[in-house]
Amino acid sequence: MAATAPRPRTSTRDPEEITRRLNAWLRTRLPGAEAVGVTVPESNGLSSETLLFEIRHPQAPVHACALRLAADPAAYTVFPVYDMPRQYRTMRVVAEHTDLPVPRVLWLEEDPGPLGAPFFVMERVAGRVPPDVMPYTYEGNWLHAASDEERERLEAASVDLLARLHDQVPQREAEFLALPGEGDALRRHVTAQRAYYEWVVDGLARSPLIEDAFARLEDLWPRDPGTPVLNWGDARIGNVVYDGFAPAAVLDWEMAALAPREVDLGWTVYLHRFFQDLTVAFGQPGLPDFLRRDRVEARYADLTGHTPRDMEFYTLYAALRHGVVMLRIAYRQAHFGEVAVPADPDTLILHHGSLRAMVQGSYWN
Fold first, then answer.
1. What is residue 123's predicted lDDT score, i.e. its pLDDT?
2. Which of 58, 313, 36 is nearest to 190 (CA)?
3. Mind telling me which InterPro entries this protein's record contains (predicted)?
4. Phi-psi region of 36 (alpha: psi -120 to 50; beta: other; left: phi over 0)
């Protein structure tokens, strides 16, 4: 998205004030401790914020830390709710019941008083992350410069993360992630996305394209969504820290939910295609053989014995969900005076062309 628009602001908080308040809080958990080198990474997200720091104390459980802070309500938040205890619990469940490399979580603070919003602190894992800005599909970054064999290793290991997550967490341990409402897990998931869309457009221009996509989902609705599993939610390689080409840490669990396996798979496939399509549109070849839908589906089936079903539905659903997020981010930029709202709100969705093609059934042809 940075290829066509200025990088939107990610925080309205004052770094010096945050550092002072963080140190005051840290000493209540570890007397005499000091948080040093507090920084906000350039890749800080548009939802919850991340702070990186070192703990200076001889009895610190770890020294290199990352802090995930719920978004500042004054910053025109991307999501309506930031449930930090839910994320913290999800990471603990995944760490306890799987062999995925989830960072060790240290402390949860539910009181918004210390830093202005709830947060949790976790171990910071060294490594490298495929960039979003500019996307890893563009030339000039470590993943694009890798060999085909190295990218193949990374792809295989990344699909394996999903397979292990879905297979290893007992459903009963993920019941707290069940979304409210009526119907099965998939119906509840889509209903929650409809509610999110209504929140995004409240008092603003609605998106005919997004509403067409919701209608198309009903036409494609799976006959049997299957048994739900713990979904990572934001299942993409940009949320993994890699040591070489092997996963070292799986991050960003704020969108975790109980849902069909294919919700995660569709998100993995489409979020790569989002970057790939963007790269081709700007005159570069990108990585056309990387994370291809057919390869992801086949590898997942080999690992789990579950052949992905109804993937036209699930990739459309991923593109639709991403479209709602893009619309919110665009309205957020307009709120801060960074962009103007056009007459056609659909053009605020960066991938409106591919989303329309999916609605029409021509994208995968």
1. 97
2. 313
3. ACAD10_11_N (IPR041726), AGP_Transferase (IPR051678), Aminoglycoside_PTrfase (IPR002575)
4. beta
Strands (E), 173-233: 229-231
Confidence category of residue 228, pLDDT binned at 50, 70, 90 = very high
Long-range contacts of 240-245 (CB under 8 A, 24+ apart): 240/129, 240/130, 240/158, 240/161, 241/125, 241/126, 241/127, 241/128, 241/129, 242/127, 242/128, 242/129, 242/130, 242/154, 243/126, 243/127, 245/146, 245/150, 245/151, 245/153, 245/154, 245/157
What single-letter amino acid sits at 47?
S
Q: Are strands 240-243 and 49-56 parallel, antiparallel or unpaired?
A: unpaired
Burial of 258 (0-12, 13-18, 19+ CB in 10 A): buried
- Joined together, the tokens standing for residue 303 give 């690992």
pLDDT value of residue 345: 95
Instruction: Measure Cα distances from 238 to 133, 144, 250, 359 in Å.
Output: 10, 13, 10, 26
- Residue that is written with structure tokens 């210390």 in the block: 114
Phi, psi of 245 (to 5 degrees): -125, 20
Q: Give the pTM.
A: 0.94
Quick one: how far is CA 298 from the chain centroid?
23
CA 338 to CA 349: how far, in whole Å?
16
DSSP reduced 3-state for 266 = helix
Q: Which two tokens stand for residue 240?
A: 């993994």
Spatial separation of the C-alpha atoms in residues 298 and 65, rounded to whole Å: 37
Q: Tell me the C-alpha distance between 258 and 268, whole Å.
A: 17
Is residue 90 within 8 A of residue 71, CB to CB? The reply is: no
Tell me which residues are annotated as active site. Answer: 234
| Cα–Cα dist 188/132, whole Å | 30
